[in-house]
Design a protein that fits this description.
heterodimer; A: mainly alpha; 3 domains; globular; B: Rieske Iron-sulfur Protein; 2 domains; seven-stranded antiparallel sheet; four-stranded antiparallel sheet; 15 strands
């Protein structure tokens, strides 16, 4: 009896088209992205409640149940059982676990600080002996990793394919799972921005963090309350713009790199009508009601005249925003950091913000490029 | 009457690490500054240091880098430092002997006058004058002052001054004295002077360093040039495996018979599509202008669609969706004896207005 209810319930939920359609609908890119951000900010605002073990256990069970029920759908199942995508499942669980672990300890510490109690880390001696503590730990980790890799190699077959054919690309052609976020950026940006500048800024920015952020709070102990801006910024950059984009690329990108809901059949012939427009089209044709300039104007090359509105927009973004932010939300921080460090911080911050802005423009307005000087491969 | 070693002169050799140990042991003798340690002016007097023998020895022993050196004579022990400290002092002396031969050399010298002083029973004031090597008078010796200044002026790295130390009576005396009888600083100065500069300021060290650097850079430059030349050789291989860029794809009638708006997929393995436009045929490069993937022709959607990042191109090759910044390129195409020949070595780009070139299409 119980068994049949269980089975029927599962099958009913798994087969329920209304539920599937609803989930497919909220997995449209703009909704998925907005909801991810909302979820993150709701979690950060209520982190003390949401990291309680009961809540965390509930979230874990709910997500697992959702995952298992989803696996009853053949299209979803075909995605998650692909050997390439097994790490994605592990990534989602591990990311969730470590995010919970960090914020749980932050929540405890923040509460203790308010009550004047010693921190979790107080009195704990970080020092351990190389022998035996470290060497043993390393050896055990080494053995476990080897076992894990062996089991993985035996259980999951290598996804070998026919010999490469230079005139045929698999459809869809997906990057390794850890680069799916970058591949997603390549959809919205010119290759040199998405493939060179943005990864370069990520690396340079991470290197610059200790020089920009010299605030000693949070050194050696977990806290969220004392470092709200820093941790929120990092979490948006890491969870949203790396992890969520990987999930995006895995579950929502199908043939022809079109968007598909997680329960939709990957139909390579599904029509998807998109018509990109550049910002110059919007400005000159729609707003000014005239043709796009193709002539040089008083010594200025025609492509600069043509792209003038886009260039002005970008310059305005990178020049006006720092000043505006300096006198509004970042007022205190600008004073603390000083001119140079504030400038670098705002520059990196604005680049980070430009990514979701550009993605949103593509999804809503089909915006191709803000500045498109294709003559010199200079497209932003 | 108990006799004991009495410190008549104390100095600091280069290498102080500013650890405060000496000042803690003998605060009236040593003064640790921000970057080095100096002897207080009072303590340059033998009368001052004799009663402080125990403290100075202790400081010398405490010093972790053993740069505190002192000179002793045998004399009447002050009441305070009589026997209890004796064992410790001996140990310290032994240690100093073992650590630094220079100290031993200096220490040996005063034993003779010390013995003489013991005979006369007047150890206190006159023994320093009898010392054959170094003049340790009651008032500060300008040469020693200069040495101290030199030793302390550059964070303890002694540079023997060229002003006071080279003039004055003591300096003159030192010039004549054999090196083995000099205090370490003066000996170092002497050795430096003997081995160092020639008339025109050329030093042996300078010559050696300069020539080593020169040889090193020459070798590096030479190796770079040779490897650059060798690398250049790889740019011109003996055999270049490159198929003929000209592909003969069949009779013109076959392609002329295609309805306008049609795409011939047969030559995709050769790297191009043949597209039929209103009044002409053209060869479209299959490489996506975004990142070089291979798009597919979707007949239902009437578009080329790239599977990597979703760039879309119309049948004529114009980009209209996705990230591709510019249209697909076209190859040179011509008719030879009724056969269509595509030359992949020459490309025509729309944004440069090259599609109007007569070589980029064949009229039908």
């Amino acid at each position: 009896m119980i068994e049949s209810i269980w089975t029927h319930g599962l099958v009913a939920a798994g087969d329920s088209n209304a539920v599937k359609d609803a989930i497919n609908a909220i997995c449209q890119p703009h909704w998925f992205f907005i909801l991810s951000n909302v979820a993150l900010f709701v979690f950060l605002m209520g982190y003390r409640t949401f990291t309680k073990p009961a809540f965390a256990l509930f979230a874990l069970l709910a997500f697992t149940a959702f995952y298992i029920l989803s696996a009853l759908d053949p299209d979803f199942l075909s995605i998650i059982i692909k050997a390439d995508n097994v790490p994605i499942t592990m990534m989602m669980y591990l990311t969730g676990f470590f995010a919970w672990l960090g914020f749980r300890q932050s929540a405890i510490n923040d509460t203790r600080m308010e009550q004047g109690q010693p921190l979790l880390e107080a009195g704990s001696d970080d020092k351990v002996l190389v022998w035996p503590d470290l060497v043993y730990t390393e050896m055990i980790a080494l053995v476990l990793c080897t076992v894990f890799l062996m089991v993985w190699a035996v259980v999951l077959r290598a996804p070998l394919e026919p010999p490469a054919n230079p005139s045929v690309a698999p459809n869809p052609s997906k990057a390794p799972w850890y680069f799916l976020g970058l591949q997603e950026l390549l959809v919205y940006f010119d290759p040199w921005i998405a493939g060179v500048l943005l990864p370069g800024l990520i690396i340079v920015g991470l290197i610059a963090v200790p020089y920009i952020d010299k605030n000693p709070r949070g050194n050696g102990y977990y806290t969220f309350k004392e470092r709200k801006f820093a941790i929120t910024t990092f979490m948006v950059g890491y969870l949203i713009m790396w992890i969520v984009l990987i999930v995006f690329g895995t579950f929502l990108r199908g043939p022809n790199w079109n968007f598909f809901g997680p329960y939709e059949f990957w139909d390579p012939h599904r029509p998807a009508a998109l018509l990109n427009i550049d910002f110059r089209d919007i400005f000159w044709v729609r707003w000014m009601g005239r043709a796009i300039p193709t002539e040089d104007w008083s010594g200025i090359p025609y492509y600069l005249v043509r792209e003038a509105p886009g260039i002005a927009l970008l310059l305005g973004y990178f020049l006006v925003f720092p000043v505006v932010l300096k006198h509004t939300v970042f007022r205190r921080m600008a004073v603390q950091l000083g001119g140079i460090r504030y400038g670098i911080m705002v520059f990196l911050f604005l680049w980070m913000l430009l990514v979701p802005i550009k993605m949103a423009l593509r999804w809503t307005l089909n915006m191709h490029y803000i500045v498109a000087i294709t003559e010199f491969f200079l497209n932003v | 009457m108990a006799t004991a070693e009495l410190v008549t002169r104390v100095w600091i050799e280069p290498g102080c690490i500013v650890c405060d140990a000496c000042e803690n042991a003998a605060p009236t003798v040593f003064h640790v500054t921000d970057d080095t340690c100096v002897i207080r002016p009072d303590a340059l007097n033998a009368e001052f240091t004799r009663p402080l023998t125990a403290e100075i020895k202790e400081a010398a022993e405490e010093c972790p880098v053993d740069v505190i050196k002192f000179e002793v004579v045998m004399g009447e022990a002050p009441a305070a430092t009589a026997t209890p400290a004796a064992a410790k002092e001996e140990k310290a002396a032994a240690k100093a002997d073992a650590d630094e031969p220079a100290t031993a050399a200096v220490k040996k010298a005063p034993h003779k006058p010390a013995a003489a002083a013991k005979e006369s029973g007047k150890a206190a004031a006159k023994s320093p004058e009898k010392a054959p090597t170094v003049s340790v008078a009651g008032e500060p010796d300008p040469a020693i002052q200069a040495l101290l200044r030199a030793a302390t002026s550059r964070g303890g790295m002694a540079v023997i001054g060229k002003t006071d130390a080279e003039s004055g009576p003591t300096a003159k005396m030192w010039e004549k004295a054999p090196a083995s009888e000099l205090p370490p600083d003066a000996r170092q100065a002497k050795v430096l002077k003997a081995s160092g500069e020639t008339k025109d300021g050329v030093t042996r060290r300078g010559v050696l360093t300069g020539s080593a650097l020169g040889i090193g850079w020459l070798a590096f430059g030479g190796a770079s040039v040779v490897s650059a030349v060798a690398f250049q050789r790889f740019m011109m291989p003996n055999v270049l495996e490159e198929p003929d860029p000209r592909v003969r794809i069949g009779k013109l009638e076959v392609y002329a018979a295609m309805p306008p708006g049609e795409v011939n997929n047969d030559h995709k393995p050769d790297g191009f599509w043949i597209i039929r436009l209103e009044d002409r045929i053209a060869a479209l490069n299959i490489i996506c202008t975004h990142l070089g993937c291979i798009p597919n022709w979707l007949a239902n959607d009437r578009k080329f669609k790239c599977p990597c990042h979703g760039s879309g191109f119309r049948q004529a090759g114009i980009n209209f969706e996705g990230p591709a910044p510019r249209p697909l390129e076209r190859f040179r195409i011509e008719v030879v004896d009724g056969f269509v020949v595509v030359d992949k070595s020459k490309k025509y780009q729309y944004e440069k207005g090259q599609w109007e070139s007569a070589e980029s299409f064949v009229e039908v």
